[in-house]
Amino acid sequence: MVSGAPQTAAALESPSTGIRVALEQAKLAPSTINIRLAVIRKLATEAADNGLLDPALAAGINKVKGVTRKGVRAGNWLSREQAREL
Description:
Radius of gyration: 18 Å
Largest sheet: none
Number of strands: 0
Order of helices and strands: HHHHH
Structural class: mainly alpha
Mean pLDDT: 80
Distance between the termini: 48 Å
Low-confidence stretches: 1-13
């Protein structure tokens, strides 16, 4: 489990979706959650490939969807004309 993240009933029932719940409850940014989920997916795949984890469990972990990012990109963006001038 993520250190400092509160444990919930959902986290204890299903480890694969529970980690996402724990990360969301830790008030992490969507991109941070998605990066951590990607690492967990890769670790599960490698563990299954090396016989350290049941392949069915690894497949379940790989099915956990990431968090959707909401909002608008901030910053100064070039117009098409400004991009052509470069």
